[in-house]
Structure formats: C-alpha cells, structure tokens
Amino acid sequence: MRPPRDLSRFVRANLRGRAAIKPAPKAARAVSKLVAALGVDAAGGPAFAEIAARWPEIVGDKVAKMCAPLRLTGRGRGGTLHVAVRGAGAVFVEAESARILERLNLFCGGSVARRLAITRAPARAASGPVRRAGLTPSETLALDAGLADVEHPRLKAALKRLGRGALLERE
Q1: Under CATH, which number does the domain 38-120 receive?
Q2: pLDDT tens digits along 95-134
Q3: What dihedral angle (degrees, nearest 10) is formed by the CA atoms of 13, 14, 19, 23?
C-alpha cells in the first residue's frame, strides 16, 4: 500500500491507539496545584480547604453544627456553595442562606458564591455527641436494684432498656 500525498490523513485513517507522547499538562492546572498548596485559590481568595477548616468562624457555631461545606463550584462567575445538612436543619439553613452567603463573601473578600445548594446528608463536621459503649458495673447494679420489684419479664426487660438508654444519654 502506497501512502497518499496527504500523509496526515493516511496516518489518521490507518493508525489507531494512544499517542506515543503524552501531552504536557495545561499551565493553569499546574499553577492551581501550586497555589492551592499555599492556601489561596487561583482567583486570589482563600482555598476551599481553608473555608472548610474555618467554617464555624464564618457562619457561627449554631449553623456549623447543622451543616458542613462540600464544595464550591463556578467561582469565576459567582458560584454555588454546596453544603451537607443534617435532617430538619435544612429548613433553617435555607432560611439563613442569604446570611451564610453574605458572611462567606465577606470572609473571601469578593463575590465568591451567589447560590447555596443544600444536600440532605450527614454533615462531616456536624457529628453528634459520642456515646459510651455501655454502663459501668455500678450503674448496672443500681438499675437492676431499681427493677427488682417488677415481676413481669417483658415489662422488666423494656424498663431495663429504657433505663440503660437514659443513663447513656445523660452525658
């Protein structure tokens, strides 16, 4: 087979697969990785990692206990802040969205986010209190002593579960 005059068309038609040499990465991607390591994004504001780390300072403790930032998209044109919110806190966070965005933009020094997207999911930073694994031996003895007069076995078991739960929640 004789190659035609237009060699590039011949190569594209007859050779398949990956290029022999991987192209160089885009300069913007390389610079953004270097700048992100400094804690600043390419637009000059704080990187998302710093926003996530200082979230309670930005929005306040009450809101920070209910939600956590997931990501920030579309920063160049006034982006969207995505937050994960636990349960019924989504209604409160939606009502406070204007204040949250105002405080975020004040912290970042510009119009970083115009919209707040709420995702109902367990928030990473908003975990509940740590519960103990079980009762101490003295608490178990006190609970058994208090239930000694109850004769019905199913009622006694239910009251014991209730007492164990109440003692574990007390802390």
Answers
A1: 3.30.300.180
A2: 999 999 999 888 887 778 889 999 887 644 445 555 566 7
A3: -30
